[in-house]
Structures are given as C-alpha cells and as structure tokens.
Amino acid sequence: MIEVKPLWINGEPFTAISVQLPKTTLLAVANDKGYIMCGALDVALLNEKLRDRGIIAGRAVGVRTIDQLLEAPLESVTFAAEQLGISRGMKGKDALLLMK
C-alpha cells in the first residue's frame, strides 16, 4: 500500500509518503526543495554519482513511522543539504524547516 498525505510543520507544507513493502516500509517527507527519508536512502550515491544534481536530502535510520522520521536525528545528509545548514544529528523536522 502507498499512502501520500499532506503534512504541516510550523505552518510549512510538506508531503508525507509511506510505501509498505514486504518486511519493510519506505518513509519520506518532502517539499519542492528536498526531503528526508528512512534508512533506504543512499546518501553516498547522491553525493558521489549524482552530486551534480545538488539533491537536498537527509537519512534517518531505525524509523518505522512518519512521526519517528520527523523526530529522529539524521544519520547522514547530502552535501547540498549541508550548504543549507542541515547537519548530521539534527532532527528530521528541523532539517525540513531549513528546506525553504
């Protein structure tokens, strides 16, 4: 099952996406500038092979719900995210608010 729903954080609009797969659930919260995602996100790939795209993204591991993704510290972030002030250890929701 795929669930897509609007999500507001401090008055800012985002889209929450949950994809249920066998034995795992993919989670992401995005806006038109960037996104955070569960452990399935390959930040190294984005930083190395797709660096020229300037993808703004962060990865949190060990999360099973959108609420957990928002509260979890980011385990890794892309170079483009770092340029916005997003850093490892930052809560997901705080990182999203810097993606304006």
Structure description:
The protein is α+β, with helices and mostly antiparallel strands and 100 residues long. It has one domain: 2-Layer Sandwich (Hypothetical protein Ta1206 fold). Helices cover 22% and strands 35% of the residues. Helix 1 (43-48) links the parallel strand 4 (34-37) and strand 5. The mean pLDDT is 97.
Attribute tags:
DUF1805 domain-containing protein, six-stranded mixed sheet, 100 residues, Hypothetical protein Ta1206 fold, single chain, alpha+beta, 6 strands
CATH architecture: 2-Layer Sandwich
Low-confidence stretches: none
- Radius of gyration in whole Å, from Cα? 12 Å
Please summarize the sheet with the most strands: 6 strands, mixed
**Count of helical regions:** 4
Organism: Anoxybacillus kestanbolensis
InterPro entries: DUF1805 (IPR014931), YunC_sf (IPR036493)
Protein name: DUF1805 domain-containing protein
Describe the SSE topology.
Blueprint: E1 2-9, E2 12-21, E3 24-30, E4 34-37, H1 43-48, E5 56-59, H2 66-71, E6 76-77, H3 79-82, H4 92-97
Parallel strand pairs: 4-5
Antiparallel strand pairs: 1-2, 2-3, 3-4, 5-6
Quick description:
The protein is of the alpha+beta class and 100 residues long. Helix content is 22%, strand content 35%.
